[in-house]
Amino acid sequence: MKFLLVFDFDHTIIDENSDTWIVKCAPEKKLPNGLRNSYQPGHWTEYMCRVFVYLGENGIKEDEMKRTMTTIPFTAGMGDLLGFIGDNKELFDCIIVSDSNAVFIDWILKAADFHKVFDEVFTNPASFSSMGYLTVQNFHSHHCAKCPKNLCKRKVLKEFIDKQLDQGVCYARIVYIGDGGNDLCPVTFLKKDDIAMPRQGYALEKKLSQLAQDLNPVECSVLVWSSAADIMSYLKLLTQE
Question: What CATH superfamily is the domain 3-15+73-124+144-239?
Answer without folding.
Answer: HAD superfamily/HAD-like (3.40.50.1000)
